[in-house]
């Protein structure tokens, strides 16, 4: 199947793709310095005074190409040596008291003004490394792939800022260990400089960006002059040690651990990242909710190793990193395997990660290569016979090996072809999985059209059989001008399954989508920007080939000159055949046609007080069923060091026909009200850009209440036939769900790349069937439950091999 698709596809791509032609591309030629400048933000050293200038910045937002005024003239200079690239920036300001400086920690710019530098060492129009320094001195760095920004990427580099009556200044040292570049004597890199003047709500760039065509990453200037560099060995070590005290239900447990993360530059282009004896004890808590639906709840990744530099491995959406170290594959079966006179002493809900590594990089011909591997330990459930006292164990997850291999070829500075394979191998007579994908993302010569597609094949090896599945997608989109449009198709057969290392909530679909939009790229009247979109969809089941749903809608997004944003959306849908709510193969429940309406506003974040408000209402035709959602998020910046964000979220779902249980051969449904209320608070006090106290709090309460005597049996046509269903204590479907999380931490970056984190964590959880209780009574019940208290200290120290080597030599 892949072979039959590949040949015509390659022929098609060769006909539509030509090299990109961006006119008037600026060029900066740097020079090598024998004396490295001191990184202090004071740009009076001779090497800077003699360096060439990158200037004549032009507006990118809100206008289009207007020259920067003399009152805010911006000049950037670049030098290099065998160790690093050095950047100096002069940013003039005729009213320096208006320069916004908010103290924040790494990767959080807040409302500060900043200088941004994008470096594309392969000059391929796609893969860039971003470095940002704010007027307060905060650093941020990210990997950029097209329009995607990954701020989980962290490397070690130096910067400093300085301010006087004429403006503010930035000095940066970016070591080659923070970059990956081709191994050749003459380097030519794409580079872009970007200045945000927050108090004026204006942004300027060095190399002009035509926002109406293509992607911003395709508009870098050209950095020349770096030649014959002899970069040092790229070897960094991150040893850590951690200690924790856990107290729960009157019992305490102390833990101590140590481990090591390692980064090694195999050559100038490829880097090995490895974690040995990893420790994830201080990762942020998950936003767990009451989940009564047919799908698992999806959480974001909080473990640094699985978020840094993973842009190659996420191609094709086949890698859901939470699978590594997640619940054992036999976790739910452990309860069913319990014998009559047995009790479960231990059934771990997570597997232990032994180690993990990834190798990634790109050749000078634009070929990206990535390899990921991790190993998890064996996990067992332990049972005890209540009569004899004997114990036994059952393996719920054997030793497991997770692999990803990626080839990603960039060409024409705007297009790519990708091959990816993921593999999970479990020791013994367990389930194994293998998934392969072919992807293309191609623009035409004028950058006015994008052609994107995927073909993916899954293969599940079970003890008694192999199951193969297939999925594909294809989209064509106009990417130039004010008026844009696109069509897309998505397909998956009934056996497509990537859930051993990826995540796919549904399969067996054959869907069609279209959209069209109009947007502006220069201010009109009091509006800085607006976008109007209309879209539609037709969803079908692949087998059997029947309609699932047809819908259409529209949205509007508007931002004024005063940075007041507002908008809304509407949507109408036909009847919907839900094949997943019944939890039974080939069965579906037929939901009525509905219409939804939303509206939102967002005020100017530059002001000390700002807020976001979002409303959504959904109504079903000829039915009492409806849904209301209210989200309110005020924020207050007390000083440039202290800020807080509160979020209130309220959801009310009325009279939804919902799955209850399977009773013999019958599928029982009930009429359910689902109410959820969430309060969360995030507060930060920053002593400076290296030390801060952070507070994160969340309380989530939800109740599911089924109406009395309103139960039904699902028939083969998706209709619900009223029936009598007796409720008792064992089968009561009502639920009252309460969860409380509080994290209070002190974070100190005591040296470049090194930090200490002291964390206090408090967590309480309760779930029962008392859905009739109000908020206050339910909260009292929650506080009657035992609370988990955890105090931990984690210290990570950055060791650069070259500095250690020079220290011993001296």
TrEMBL record:
Domain called Carbohydrate-binding: residue spans: 39-192
Q: Name one GO biological process term.
A: carbohydrate catabolic process
Q: Name one Pfam family in it.
A: DUF5916
Protein's UniProt keywords contain Hydrolase: yes
Q: Which Gene3D superfamilies match?
A: 2.60.40.1190
Q: Which UniProt keywords apply?
A: Hydrolase
Organism of origin is Christiangramia salexigens
Residue ranges annotated for the DUF5916 domain, each copy included: 231-807
Q: Please list the GO terms describing molecular function.
A: carbohydrate binding; hydrolase activity, hydrolyzing O-glycosyl compounds
Q: Which domain of life is it from?
A: Bacteria
Please identify the protein, giving its name as recorded: Hydrolase
What taxonomic lineage is listed for the species of origin?
Bacteria, Pseudomonadati, Bacteroidota, Flavobacteriia, Flavobacteriales
């Amino acid at each position: 199947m892949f072979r039959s698709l590949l040949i015509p596809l390659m022929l098609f791509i060769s006909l539509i793709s030509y090299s990109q032609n961006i006119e008037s591309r600026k060029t900066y030629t740097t020079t090598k310095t024998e004396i490295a400048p001191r990184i202090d933000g004071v740009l009076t050293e001779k090497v800077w005074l003699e360096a060439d200038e990158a200037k004549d910045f032009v507006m990118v937002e809100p206008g289009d190409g207007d020259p920067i005024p003399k009152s805010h003239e911006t000049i950037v200079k670049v030098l290099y040596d065998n160790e690093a690239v050095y950047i100096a920036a002069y940013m003039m300001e005729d009213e320096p008291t208006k320069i916004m400086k908010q103290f924040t920690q790494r990767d959080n710019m807040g409302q500060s003004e900043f200088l941004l530098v994008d470096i594309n060492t392969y000059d391929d129009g796609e893969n860039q490394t971003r470095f940002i320094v704010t007027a307060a001195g905060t650093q941020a760095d990210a990997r950029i792939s097209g329009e995607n920004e990954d701020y989980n990427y962290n490397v070690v580099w130096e910067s400093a800022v300085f301010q006087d009556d004429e403006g503010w200044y930035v000095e940066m040292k970016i070591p080659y260990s923070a970059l990956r570049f081709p191994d050749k004597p003459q380097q030519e890199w794409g580079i872009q400089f970007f200045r945000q003047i927050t108090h004026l709500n204006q942004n300027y760039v060095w190399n002009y960006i035509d926002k109406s065509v293509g992607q911003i990453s395709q508009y870098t200037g050209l950095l020349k002059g770096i030649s014959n560099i002899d970069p040092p060995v790229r070897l960094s070590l991150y040893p850590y040690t951690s200690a924790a005290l856990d107290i729960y239900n009157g019992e305490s447990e102390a833990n101590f651990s140590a481990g090591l993360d390692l980064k090694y530059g195999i050559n100038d282009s490829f880097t090995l990242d490895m974690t040995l004896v990893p420790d994830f004890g201080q990762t942020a808590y998950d936003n767990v909710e009451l989940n009564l639906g047919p799908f698992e709840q999806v959480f974001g990744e909080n473990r640094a190793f699985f978020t840094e530099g993973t842009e190659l491995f996420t191609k094709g959406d086949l890698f859901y990193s939470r699978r590594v170290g997640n619940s054992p594959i036999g976790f739910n079966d452990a309860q069913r395997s319990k014998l009559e006179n047995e009790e479960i002493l231990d059934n771990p809900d997570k597997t232990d990660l032994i180690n993990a590594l990834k190798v990634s990089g790109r050749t000078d011909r634009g070929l990206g290569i990535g390899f990921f591997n991790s190993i998890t330990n064996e996990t067992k459930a332990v049972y005890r016979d209540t009569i004899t006292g004997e114990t036994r164990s059952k393996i719920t997850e054997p030793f497991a090996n997770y692999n990803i291999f990626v080839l990603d070829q960039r060409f024409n500075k705007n297009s790519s072809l990708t091959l990816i394979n993921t593999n999970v191998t479990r020791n013994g007579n367990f389930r194994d999985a293998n998934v392969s994908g072919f992807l293309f993302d191609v623009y035409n010569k004028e950058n006015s059209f994008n052609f994107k597609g995927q073909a993916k094949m899954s293969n599940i090896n079970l003890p008694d059989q192999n199951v193969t599945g297939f999925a594909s997608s294809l989209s064509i989109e106009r990417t130039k001008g004010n008026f844009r449009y696109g069509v897309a198709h998505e397909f998956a057969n009934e056996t497509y399954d990537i859930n051993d290392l990826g995540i796919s909530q549904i399969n067996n679909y054959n869907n069609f989508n279209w959209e069209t939009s109009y947007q502006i790229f220069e201010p009109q009247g009091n509006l800085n920007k607006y976008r109007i979109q209309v879209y539609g969809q037709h969803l079908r089941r692949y087998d059997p080939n029947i309609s699932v749903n047809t819908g259409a809608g529209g949205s509007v997004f508007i931002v004024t000159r005063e940075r007041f944003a507002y908008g809304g959306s509407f949507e109408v849908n036909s009847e919907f055949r839900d094949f997943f709510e019944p939890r039974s193969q080939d069965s579906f429940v037929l939901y009525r046609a509905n219409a939804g309406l939303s509206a939102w506003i967002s005020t100017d974040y530059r002001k000390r007080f700002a807020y976001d408000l979002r409303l959504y209402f959904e109504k079903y035709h000829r039915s009492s069923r409806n849904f209301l959602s209210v989200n309110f998020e005020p924020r207050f910046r007390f000083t440039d060091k202290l800020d807080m964000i509160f979020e209130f979220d309220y959801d009310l779902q009325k009279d939804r026909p919902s799955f209850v249980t399977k009773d013999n051969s019958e599928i029982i449904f009930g009429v359910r009200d689902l109410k959820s209320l969430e309060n969360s608070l995030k507060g930060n006090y920053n002593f400076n850009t290296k030390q801060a106290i952070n507070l994160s709090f969340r309380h989530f309460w939800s109740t599911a209440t089924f109406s009395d005597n309103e139960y039904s049996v699902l028939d083969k046509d998706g209709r619900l036939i009223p029936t009598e269903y007796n409720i008792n204590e064992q089968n009561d479907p009502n639920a009252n769900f309460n969860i409380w999380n509080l994290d209070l931490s002190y974070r100190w970056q005591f040296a470049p790349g090194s930090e200490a984190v002291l964390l206090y964590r408090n967590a309480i959880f309760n779930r029962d069937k008392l859905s009739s209780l109000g908020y206050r009574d339910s909260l009292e019940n929650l506080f009657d439950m035992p609370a988990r208290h955890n105090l931990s200290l984690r210290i990570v120290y950055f060791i650069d091999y070259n500095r250690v080597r020079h220290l011993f030599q001296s």
